[in-house]
Amino acid sequence: MPRGLGELEIVTLLAVLQAPEPAYAVTIAAEIERRTGRKVARGALYATLNRLTEKGLLDTWFGAETPERGGRRKRHYSPTADGLQAARHARSALRSMWSGLENVLETR
Amino acid sequence: MKRPYPWLDRLLGLFLDAADREEILGDLHEEHGPIPPGIRGSGRIAWATLGIVVRLIGSRLLGGIGNDFRIASRRLVTDPGFAALTIGALALGAGVNAAVFTVADAVLFAPLPYPDGARLGVLSSDHTGSATGGFGVAFENVRDLAERADTVERAALFLDWQDLTYQADGAAFRLPATFADQAFFELMGLRTQRGRLIGQEDNRTGVAAPVAVLSHGAWTRLFGADPDIVGRVLHLNDQPTEIIGVLEDDRGDLRYRWGESPTAIFLPLFAAESLTGFDLRADRGQRYLNALVRVPAATRFEQAGDELAGISTQLAEEHPEFNEGWTFALEPLREAFFNELQTPARALLAGSLLVFLLVVVNLTSLLLIRAEGRVGEIAVRRALGARRWRVARLLAVESLVLSCIAGALAVVLAIGLVALTRSSGALELPAFARLHVGLGHLFLTAASTLAAGLVLGAVAAVRLLAADPRGRTGRSSPGRRPRRIGGLLIAAEVGLAFLLLFGAGLLLGSFLSLRGTNYGFETDDLLLARVDLPSANQGASELRQFAEDAMNSGARLPQVADTFIWAPNRLGHGNQVEIITRADRWLAFPQERIEASQHHVHPGTLAKLGISLLRGRDFSAADGAAEREMVPGVAIVSESVAAELWPGADPLGRYFETYLEGEVQQVAVIGVATDSRHRTRLVDPDGPQRDIYYPFLAAPVSPMTLALRLAPGAEVEATARAVRQLLGELAPSAPLFELATMGAAMRDEESRHRFSAVVVAFYAGLALGLAAIGLYGVLAHRVRSQRQELGIRLALGASPRQVHRAVLASGLAPVMLGVVAGAAASLPAGRLLAASLYGISAYDAATYLAVPGILLVVAVGALAAPARRAARTPAAVILRNE
To answer: What is the pTM for the complete model shown?
Structure first.
């Protein structure tokens, strides 16, 4: 299990899982924007995908050449077993941080 | 609008690998519309792409960099030898560079601290009969010059070679003085800290009491920065002089240009007439002055020089009786100050840059060797998924860490070296030129070290990344080109080391023979006390009496064997020079005038110094009874003078002429003495030594030196104290301004030569060490890359000895090439050095033999380890490893 993930890394990891399979940068970006309402800079997204791959949390492979991409292939991403584990870990960590705060957060 | 963005294409190619490019361009194509190859599209697409690339590069360059620093620091610890060598060499190179630059900057580049300092020059005169030049200028001549010359914007007159005697509380001091007109202060931009400057109204003749301005240094040193100094009246040469101001700094001193102690006090120009007795304006033969001249903007000194030459000719025609043979000489102020230092400073700067370059080149080759050993490690890293840029970054970080440490050390070293130079006193600079390592120098040091480190890292990275990552060891065949480059590198290094060693050898030899050179007279056990009687006491009989008393009471001191008086020069520094010629030739043949040092001595003094008379007789008491006071009438001349004035003839009874006491005088030769080196033994000691000895009794002069020959085993300190007391009693108003043994004076004189010998020897050692490192590096590299070949040779029956010899020979070939190149280059280099050599030829055979010898020994030493390694490794091991 790698050390703590940054917020953008968690969001990206989850977006890979949420996007229609097989995910690639365009769909991942769209998924983040749709769910968080936030536009992620594309360069930052590639960098994050790179980093997650280097940490062994994502697998990547190339699909077939597609005409709508000028004959270029898509690079697909899917979480590895470690990636799934990291997502679970992040969820439980956040959950435990959230627990007991409902009253405070709701009343304000 | 679609247009191509080739730069974007190149940028992508540089920083992203093919997979990244395909992904990103594909995604953009899908979202923003077609991007054909070569990135042809709208500006919007270009911007989007650029934004992505910049973000990506930024995150990659910096992400996880902390880890790289950890890895790099760990490598320093695990490989301390390599780290020490790299850091040490880099720090040494950069530190020496910074120190040299600091010194050279002060001498060569730093602007002079005067308004339009680059346009200031010092005016003096040359004479056709004089080899040295640098005489003063006459008042009227400068006035005419200022009127006629377009290339002289302003001229200020000054006289700065006289000292004044200042008496206070029963003690006497010598104050180095500068007499100057008002323009002098304006041209130099001098201001007072308190009081006022010397103005037009002070500089009139017949002013009842002169006024004076103190230099800042003298005010703090001699008067304890007395706040009430302005208005005080000092007794200078027995004349009351009012202090009217104190300068705010010490920039006003020009005496540095002849290595004299700095001006303590400034007085109006014409005060020189009443205080020193010179008649500055009597006629155009009174060349007591110098002029500070400003040329107009955009005028070169050469132009001014041409015009001055023309005016000199005019003046010689108008006033031939005084100006025949005389020309003006204008020297830029920077050169007047730093003349002697500029060439060595340039040479030192070039040398240290070269050495620094060598350091970088050498370390690069060393790093490459090490990279060879790391190809495997890097290949593993890359195979594990590390990308190219990641590996490159790690190497860059490693070099960064190395060079940061080296940079810090270099700064410390530079500061230390500069402090050492300053405290050694070998390099004397004018008061305004404070020798310190400035921020700019530090920045340069840091930047150069860093740049060098990054170059090292980059070269190593390129080399490693070029290696095939799939090969198990990544070993690539060396090919012929790198080998040849390695060989040339070695040859160049050896050549340079040869040059430096050669120079060091010559300078060292020169220094040693310098130390071994005598003056041609007995210098052992001499204690010298130099005094100057105040001008009021400089009547002939008073001078005679003082000399007599000083000699007698000195001789009565315990531990003193003998005494004599030497005047007016320092013993061994005959800087008081006069021009003489054969009788009847003074006006007719100015080109036959020669320069000689004059010395005034008592009967018997020459014998006491061990200077023997070749012909004629010594002075006698009768020679004191001259027809006129202060005119010697007779003289003893040195062999060289006799040979030049009367070649092949008997000089005894002949007359020479000289300009004395305001007129041309005839002097009869009564003796010829052996040549001795009174003008310093360090300059042209084997050239003609032109000296004239006058009878002190007939023409007594001050300042004079009381010389005491100490008995063997005498206590110098105690005797010196006794001498100080004795002279204080004899003449309380005469300042004692030098009290030292001849030996100490000689060591002082040698210090600059010693310094340059040490500096060059240091450089030579550095170059030798670098050449050894380079040699070791290249050969180790070669042995490693030829292992297979060596292994096969061993397997085929070659003996280890043969392999050893073959490897040695292949390493020595470029060394020999370097030796030959160095020897060739040393011929012109020796000629350049010849001027500063003494007692050793620029083609000294011993040096020519010793240098290649040293180089070969060091080369064999550096080659020994790799050669042995090559020969010892069993063939089976090598081949199996392959």
So the answer is: 0.67
